[in-house]
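So, is this right?
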Amino acid sequence: MTELIFIYNAKSDRLNSLIEFAHKIVSPSTYACDLCTLTHGNFGERETWKTFKDNANIPLTFYHIDEFEKLFPDRFTYPVILKNEANQLSVLLNAEAIASFKTTEALIEALQELVEG
């Protein structure tokens, strides 16, 4: 079964979460995770993104860098969205492609086109 794996350009520990939160508010134009910006606002997950996740027809898995790298030997430029088919990871959308999306809806539309063909 095909799975999409989303890896945010952030670490999962509490201190880094607080730093990322402050950075996103104080200097959003220099924030390092375009995927975070598209899927989350300053105070939580965007409603459009939550709806997409809740209605997805394939499994979606989400990691921070440190969580992903503990489980997988593969290394990527983050953020990245991977396609996992039969335990074979391939890049679906790289950091540059993710950065090109201006809205959550544009990201969702691209994901749907890429997955559904």
